[in-house]
Write a structure and sequence with these properties.
There is one protein chain. This protein is an all-alpha fold and 286 residues long. The protein is built from 11 helices and 2 strands. Strand 1 and strand 2 (131-134) form a beta hairpin. It starts with 10 loop residues before the first helix and ends in an 8-residue tail after the last helix.
């Protein structure tokens, strides 16, 4: 006769043991996972699980493909735009999709997207039966943009003069010395970039944010025109550095705003008229 519940042979012990075993195996039922209720995390509606997984997978791959295509399109855009701006692709150069795709080691899809963006910016011209070509420099548009910048940038520089930091002023002096060091072995693209940086260092402190925005837009348009003045009139480079010296001297001496504005505006107009003379166009009347 079993002695008590603790005896393995006791009936209650056998009942407890059988109740603790799962009907599908030897693992106790208490070790099993409680069923998920509707609305709880991990609950999958009957019959829809595989479809939901398929949808998520398809969406994930679609997002991946879109991101990959966008990044390739951006790289193609950056590369082609850079070649246009630095003169590697000259005005009239044919932009053949297949050739560009091979050079950039990608398919024609991102190249096509890049060409569309560049066409919208005016850097590329598309003609039926010819295809995409690099746009020619528009001398009239260049003149209009330079006239606008002469007025706006001159005013912005004058307003910024009393507010410019010692650091920014020192930066402008350093940049002009860099430009001076390039005069014997002029690299027009590098020189143009330094010239833009020089003027930006002087006008960025302008307190009139609307005026500053207009100056930025003018320079964005100038970059789109991509007319590097110093490619056309390299002799202007040395004159430009000397005029920078005069502008810096006026700012260092805290000259009146109208004088600084006139100095900056005259500097820009001399560059414009030198360019117009080089391309056989009449001088600006401004």
């Amino acid at each position: 006769m079993p002695e008590g519940p603790n005896d393995p042979q006791h009936p209650t012990a056998r009942v407890r043991a059988s109740a603790g075993r799962s009907s599908v195996g030897s693992r106790p039922a208490a070790w099993g996972r409680a069923p998920r209720r509707r609305g709880q995390p991990g609950h999958t509606p009957s019959g829809s699980g595989s479809k939901d997984v398929w949808r998520v997978t398809r969406i994930s791959y679609t997002i991946y493909d879109m991101t990959t295509t966008t990044s390739k399109s951006q790289r193609a855009y950056d590369a082609i735009r850079s070649h246009i701006l630095d003169g590697t692709y000259t005005p009239g150069y044919r932009l053949v999709l297949g050739t560009l795709a091979d050079e950039l080691e990608c398919s024609v899809v991102p190249v096509r997207e890049a060409i569309r963006r560049l066409e919208a910016e005016g850097l590329v011209h598309f003609e039926r039966n010819v295809g995409a070509t690099v746009s020619a420099v528009d001398a009239t548009l260049y003149m209009n943009t330079m006239q606008t910048l002469a007025v706006l940038e001159g005013t912005a520089t004058a307003l910024a003069a009393p507010l410019i930091s010692a650091e920014s002023l020192a930066k402008a002096h350093r940049i002009n010395e860099q430009m001076r060091s390039l005069l014997n072995h002029l690299e027009p693209t590098v020189f143009t970039g330094l010239n833009n940086d020089f003027h930006a260092a002087l006008y960025e402190a302008c307190p009139n944010t609307h005026l500053l925005d207009l100056v930025h837009r003018g320079w964005a348009r100038m970059n789109a025109i991509r007319a590097s003045t110093f490619n056309t009139i390299p002799a202007r480079a040395a004159q430009s550095v000397e005029e920078h010296d005069a502008l810096l001297a006026a700012i260092d001496a805290a000259r009146p705003a109208p004088e600084i504005e006139a100095t900056a505006r005259a500097h820009r107009m001399r560059t414009l008229n030198a360019y117009l003379a080089a391309v056989g166009a009449p001088p600006s009347t401004l």
